[in-house]
Design brief:
about 250 residues, alpha/beta, Rossmann fold, six-stranded mixed sheet, three-stranded antiparallel sheet, 8 helices, about 25% strand, globular, P-loop_NTPase
Amino acid sequence: MRNERAVSLHRLSCDGLVKDHGGSFQLGPLSLEFADGVTCLVGPNGAGKSTFFRIAAGLEKPTSGSVRLPRGKSDERISPLGYLPQILDMPPGATCEEFLHYVAWVHRIPAGRREKAVADVLSRTGLAERVTSKIRTLSGGMARRLGIAQAMIHDPVMLLLDEPTVGLDPRQRLALRETIAAIAAERIVIVSTHLVEDIRGLADRVVVLDGGTVVFDGDVPALEAKSDPGAPGETDLERALATLMGAPE
């Protein structure tokens, strides 16, 4: 666990949120509130994590219930949220700077502020020395950091990061977790993950989904306390997740 945070300034609220996929799967009903800091959204494949992200990002509408986004910055033209999907298509022949200038334009950042916005976000994600690098030359870890940079370019108060460390080696995952922790001080960050090391290294709070419903909501020590000694896993955290998600022994 990392240090306790100051009182949150932002809130994402879900009230009775339901998404029904034609009887094959239902997410919810979910009534949750997210505050500043890092919340790890955890669950097996098909638990509803990506569905929740798409609804929170405005890409899908709920069947019923509501999602209330946090209030954004003073410029109401600019979205209060940034989104990194699992797969982000970026133009391989563009430089990091060119790509981010385009994303800044999409987010309606005024022309006079774009240069600084690009420089700031490259610095905050550890890519300041890659300004003129072509995207196709970036390592997997750098490409994911650029994905976070594009999600942050408009300085949103909420970030949705869907499996941001997937496919990275241990060193790259550590560097990316450090990046995420550094940018989460004054914003809501929700990270979808199935990696135990991400949970332990990032989470101020953990929400576990299974079958579209919340089966746990709390911090890492409280999650570890759910561990069943007979469940599979090498640590209390792994055994707790296996216990909550009904993994076979």
